[in-house]
Specification:
Blueprint: H1 6-17, H2 21-27, H3 38-45, H4 54-64, H5 68-74, H6 80-88, H7 90-102, H8 107-132
Length: 133
């Protein structure tokens, strides 16, 4: 089975909290400061409406104890911090483009390389701090 839609994820997380659509909708403040209507939330969960604005998704994530980035991705949106990072970093764009063009998919290995590198960097910085004490 494939990845669940944004609405399906919201419904699942809401149900896990034990909230009805009406209860959850009352807790979600829209951009205008008004609570979301239960019918609007129902439409989102059923896939009849597009996911709401970024700040509404952020509020949903907080209420549902969900990962904001995961909800953004399921809403087919790029999380703002990731978008900014890509926009500001030409090398990152080139690396991502090359990965796409070559079909690269071993992102776990990339994560390990970064963790190893940052671990060595932290150790190096710690050794430098130890010398100045």
């Amino acid at each position: 089975m494939g990845e669940r839609s944004f609405g399906e994820k919201i419904a699942q997380l809401r149900n896990k909290k034990g909230w009805t659509i009406r209860e959850f909708a009352k807790r979600i403040m829209k951009e205008d400061g008004e609570p979301m209507s239960p019918s609007y939330l129902c439409d989102i969960e059923q896939g009849r409406r597009k996911p709401p604005a970024l700040e509404v998704i952020r509020r949903m994530a907080e209420l549902l104890d969900a990962d904001f980035d995961d909800l953004m991705v399921s809403a087919h949106r790029t999380p703002p911090d990731i978008k900014q990072l890509v926009q500001e970093n030409k090398m990152l764009r080139r690396v991502l483009k090359r990965a796409k063009d070559t079909g690269f998919k071993d992102w776990k290995e990339v994560e390990k390389l970064i963790e190893n590198w940052t671990g060595r960097l932290a150790q190096s910085q710690q050794r430098g701090t130890d010398r100045t004490d």
